[in-house]
Amino acid sequence: MSDIRSGPNWIHGLKENPILKLAEELGETLFDVPEVPPSIYDQAGSLLSKEDGRYCSGLMWEIIEEAFKYSDKESSSIPQNQSLLDFFKLRLRDKEIPDALAERVLQVCRSWGDYIGGDIDRQSLKYFWLEETIDGGKLFQWVSELSDPYSQHYSGNVFVASTYKAILDRIVNNTLPKAKIHLSTKVTSITSHPPTSKPSATSQITITTSTNQTFSFDAVVMTAPLGYLKRNTTTFHPPLPPRLLTAITNISYGALEK
């Protein structure tokens, strides 16, 4: 494998993360990025004082944590069209924040969209609990209390300053000798066969390529861009469940999805 000098160098999610453990074992250079006071500008382009910036930023994270808890507990009763922006406005009213200050805090709250790649007025409050896996210092203060020795001394996400090369080399060296890799092979059909009557039998998956080659597996992991799924739902036999097809049809691209 050629040397890796670019690309993602972060380890996100430290709790029981095998990549963090592997990085420690390989002696990788890890950097725990310190939290620095935010520099926040208002809509007129004026820099807020450090005190105002800390207050607005702190209140934003406080409301986000409240939104996580509320969404997780009340998801089944939250209307489909209720947004995270609605929740921000409601909490600012509940906290009796003066209108001018509330408007300034709301402007700061919109920066949450930079984390998720979409405006908070389009972020679903009903499903907001799903975003809690985006962990970092403020949202996951419990990281420092974990019994996991590999994450105990980090405050949030970790930057791998020595790159992922050694990590990927270790993973590749353990898997490539046992793998058969087919490059430039286009899959045209994925067929799932029901299990036989034998107690030990499992469902078998048949993959058909554009050259009519077939491969059979006990299980298949497939990664495909959203655009491919939108254009090729007939690739799957039997068809995908209606709920999944509806999701594929209605979902759109964000700014952070990979």
Describe the structure in your own words.
- With about 260 residues, this protein is an alpha+beta fold.
- It is about 35% helix and about 10% strand.
- The chain has helices spanning about 20-25, 50-75, 85-95, 100-110, 115, 165-175, 225-230, 240-250; strands spanning about 10, 30, 160, 185-195, 205-210, 215, 235.
- The chain has a 4-stranded mixed beta sheet with strand order 6-5-4-7, with no helix packed on it. It has a 3-stranded antiparallel beta sheet with strand order 1-3-2, covered by helices on one side.
- Residues about 135-150 have low confidence and may be disordered.
Summarize the structure.
The protein is an alpha+beta fold. Helices cover 33% and strands 10% of the residues.
